[in-house]
Design a protein that fits this description.
The structure is a homodimer. With about 200 residues, chain A is mainly α. Chain A has eight helices and four strands. The structure holds a DNA duplex (30 and 30 nucleotides).
Chain lengths: ~200, ~200
DNA sequence: TCATCATAGTCAAGAAAATGACTATTCAGA
DNA sequence: TCTGAATAGTCATTTTCTTGACTATGATGA
């Protein structure tokens, strides 16, 4: 019972879609199809919540049945039809209650760290490769986040934006993603270097 | 099929136990009871792999059935009897294969980040409290990790240890945990401050 | 023209994980 | 003497996740 809140939070951000009707302010609430949501999840929310598209579709269906989101069919001619969802007032109330309740400790699971933990007992060759691969993926994400952040804050500088901007939630979580990936890159590169040196020393010996 | 590798990696570290027999080198492999493993997981492995005690017991039983770990009964008079497990050669081979295979992308899930993402639409009061709570928990972990790292490297300084120390895997993962918690603390404090300021501005308005 | 990508989903089986309760014993402290 | 914490586990139910399919259409590129 927790993916639901991530979905609600992601839906709230709204916009970023190419959905025709920009008319009618819905109280800062956006509209997404399951498909769009899946993509938004991938780049934004994935920094703190991982989920597969199938889960999102299933969760949206459940949320609709419970009245926390409202869906409407959009018939398209050039594309398959889709259903757009927006958060209802009940959904907003649910999110508010969630925010007030105590948080579960954060949950992490990382194969690569397990491999590093076992580095003294296994062949480090492939592990080094994976660390370098990860560092370069992190690098790419860092650039992406930089762009996303610049776009979100527009003309304002960061301090200014955080003080007066409307809708800073996604900005703050994106900052976290950025810091995480920077840390990820630093650590991966350092560990790769350490393991490489030790391999070299081992061969010479 | 992945918790198993985290368990194997954790078992390899070994030692830290008060088990009587320190005689007989087992090739750098330690021995743990399920109970001890659960505690070791909590402080060490939990930085990159979260698991409940029940899962560990279940996984140890499976691993034993498959011959990847070997258990032996230890009869105790002052305490309930226990079973100690050590990784077998087959277990080591399994870990090695795992290390060589490609890694799944890391998996993260964090309630508090979901709340921050929704910060523009919910009451931020409780969220601020939770952020501050998290910062202080992170602070405590930072100190703990500092101690653990100092203990692991002994007399040597870090560079020296990473070059010549035996068993650096757990050290490297602990470094990661440290960096993660530092980042966690910085971010939590900053976000709490930003949200506080905005609340204040909102009231004045 | 054929292949493949992007859009927009749905379904079902099986593995894994979370939850919550339950059994025992010993030791320390109120 | 009673309570509660630490040690050392086990069991069963439910929920959640993962895996791997399958259905369509339109646009893009070779």
């Amino acid at each position: 019972m927790a993916l639901r809140h991530a979905v609600l939070a992601a839906l709230l951000v709204g916009d970023g879609s190419d959905a025709g009707d920009t008319g009618g302010d819905s109280g800062g609430r956006g509209e997404y199809s399951g498909y769009q949501l899946a993509k938004a999840f991938d780049i934004g929310v994935a920094n703190f919540w991982h989920a597969l598209p199938q889960q999102l579709y299933a969760e949206l269906a459940k949320l609709e049945k419970e009245g926390l989101v409202a869906g409407r069919q959009v018939i398209q001619e050039t594309r398959p039809n889709k259903r757009l969802f927006r958060v209802t007032d009940a959904g907003l109330a649910e999110l508010d209650a969630f925010a007030a309740a105590s948080s579960k400790p954060s949950f992490i699971r990382d194969d690569l760290l397990v491999k590093v933990q076992a580095a003294d007992s296994v062949d480090t060759g492939p592990v080094i490769e994976q660390l370098e691969e990860r560092a370069s993926v992190a690098e790419a994400k860092i650039e992406l986040f930089g762009k996303v952040l610049r776009k979100m804050r527009g003309e304002l500088d960061e301090e200014e934006f955080l003080r007066r901007g409307e809708r800073i939630g996604p900005y703050l979580t994106c900052l976290r993603g950025l810091a995480l990936e920077q840390e990820n890159r630093e650590w991966s590169m350092r560990v790769a270097a350490v393991l490489r040196e030790r391999r070299a020393a081992h061969v010479e010996r």
